[in-house]
Each structure stands twice: as C-alpha cells, then as structure tokens.
Amino acid sequence: MMAPAQISAASGGCRTLLNIVSGKLGALAECAGLGRSKLSLRKGGDNLVVLESFTKTLFVAALLLLASGGCSDKPVFTEPLALGGVTVPADVLEQGRRVYKKHCLNCHGGDGDGTGVSAYGQWPAPRDFRSAKFKFAGVAGAGLASDEELERIITLGLKGTYMRPWALKTNELQAVVQYIKTFSPEGGGYRSESLRVKAPAMYSDPYASAEQFSRAVAEGEELYHVVFQCAACHPAYVSRAQLEAWGAPVRAGDASEPVASWSNDYNAALLPPDFRRHQMRSVASSEGPRGILDHDVADIYRAITMGLQGAMPGFGHLGAERAWAVAHYVKSLADVKHLEPSKEPEFSRP
Question: What is the pTM of this model?
C-alpha cells in the first residue's frame, strides 16, 4: 500500500504527464480541424485528475489526421477584416493565426477565451481575449488597447505570471496582435463601430535630473497617501501617526498589507502589489549596481495615469507632475535587491 507522500508524488507525476499529453492533444485536435480542443482537466477527489473525453477526442483526431495524410493548415481568412477602425489584410491575419497557434494556443485556447489545455491551475488565469480588455495596456475606461501597447506586453511578458516574454520577429509580432483582435465578438471589442483605440498620453518627466529625484520622492510620498490615496488598496508605507498628521484616510485593519478584491471583469480575486515585496507585472526592470533592481519609472507613470483597465482607475486627472512624483516614490520603494511574485489571495467570490 502506498504511503500518502507516495500517492501525492504519483498523482503529481500523473498530473504533469497529463498536462504534457493534453498539450499535444490540443495541437493535434487543432491540426485535425477540430477547432479548439474541448479537452479539460478537473480535480477529482484528493489525488485524481480527470481528463474529460480524452480517449474519444484523441481517437477522432488521429483518424482525421490519418485520413488527411498529415497536418494541413487551410487558410481561415480569405477577406480583410475591419478591426479597431483599421482594415487588416487577410494574409496578415493568416500569419498571425499561425504564430498564435504555435506560441499562444495552449494557454489562451483556440477560441481565445483563456481556457487552453495548459491553463489548468494557472493564477492569474490566461487572458480571455474576447473581452478586448487588457489590464496593463495603458487604456483608461472603455477604450481599446493600441497595437504598440499590446506589442509591449507580448515582448516584455507579465512578471509573476505564466506570460513569459516573447522574442518574435517584427512582422510576427504585428501579425499576432491583429489576430488576437479577431476574438472580439461581432459588434463588440475590436469589431465595435463605436469603440476606438486609445493610446496612453505620456508627458515628459519634470524630475528627470538626479538632483530632482529626492524632491520627487519626498513629494510623491505625501501625494501617494493623501491625494492619490493609494493606500486604500496598496499598503501604507508611513506610520498611522503620520497619516493622521497629514489628514490622510486611515483604513481599518492592517494598513501595511494590500487589500484583495473581486473583479467581475477578470473573474478573479485581484491583489494589488506591495511595492517593497511584489513584482509589478508590466513594469520593465533591470539589475543595477550591487544587484539593486532599476525599474522603468515611465511604466509606473503609465499605470498611475491610465489605470489598469477594469482593475484600477486612472489618476491622470490629478495632474502629470503629481503623477510623476508618485511614480518616482513607487520606484524608490521597488528598487530593492529582490521582489517576488504576489500569491493568489484567499478570497471568496461574492
């Protein structure tokens, strides 16, 4: 009889094996013309993983492949499409489809709904492209992300998630961005006649010189807590006495911890980062002297002013100079030796 630890190890091995096989099966079903694989993984009991319709789907896919003599890739797009107010040629969409199939299908799925065969157990879950909402694309309100912003996300990846950086050729990158837009439903998202692309408005940094940095951090510290009221969701980084002296709001509970909340837009519990501990998903960084991280303050400014679509409002209305000061303050908190990914919060869906 197997010991509990052996059972756990064995089930983990089976789960890994099934994930690998299911990934191959997803590509097989796509190749055989079955569209998105309906394969799914589900927890069953304490140590079992149930693979739905595995044998049937694999058998049908194998028969179709044998009958067709191999993997065919018939064109799906034969006419140009209007996406986000721009007409995209069919050959560009076809190239994007091939790139997506090779690099994106297993996580984001054949329907772009974020339920690909490798999505099981991922937190955060892969993006559902059908909503045309992209949290880190510098979009305020209900606008559409620009091509440049989507390309930036694909190239940089999202830290602390399964979305790795992708070093695609320029034409591949541009093509897959156009293809992602095709997942928008008829009349919605990038297929809407009313929604338009909104590129983020970036203003020059008034604290660009080294001499001005200390002033920016000092001003940003008070603005963060008093005017922008970031500590309503993110941690407060000053004492309760200092908050009261400033006349800043003081939330109940432990103000040194971030506050998780449920998002209907992303169908998940979202946890704002603690800037001294957690990675900022879409902020570029490099390792500076003595291993200290050096974050791109412009990326922080973009997030502050434009917000995170459906997750955090933008604060651009409070003024560009103030926003730059807060961005420098956040950078001063995050520029440390090590940051870790935030963990999935314990949160019950309302």
Answer: 0.78
- Look up the domain containing 26 and give its range: 4-68
Instruction: Answer yes or no: is 145 within a domain.
Output: yes
Residue 74 vs residues 173, 181, 249, 300: alpha-carbon distances, Å: 21, 20, 60, 43
Tens digit of pLDDT for each residue in 52-100? 444 455 555 555 544 544 455 789 999 999 999 999 999 999 999 999 9
Question: CB under 8 Å, gap of 24 or more: what pairs does 342-350 form?
Answer: 342/160, 342/258, 342/271, 342/273, 342/274, 342/277, 342/278, 342/279, 343/271, 344/123, 344/269, 344/271, 345/260, 345/269, 345/271, 347/260, 347/261, 347/262, 347/269, 349/262, 349/269, 350/262
107 and 145 part of one domain: yes
Q: What are phi and psi of 345, to 5 degrees?
A: -75, 150
Q: Give the model confidence (pLDDT) of 35-65 as tens digits.
A: 444 444 433 444 334 444 444 555 555 555 4
Count of domains observed in the chain:
3
Q: On the CB side of 333, how many CA atoms lie within 13 Å of its CA?
A: 24
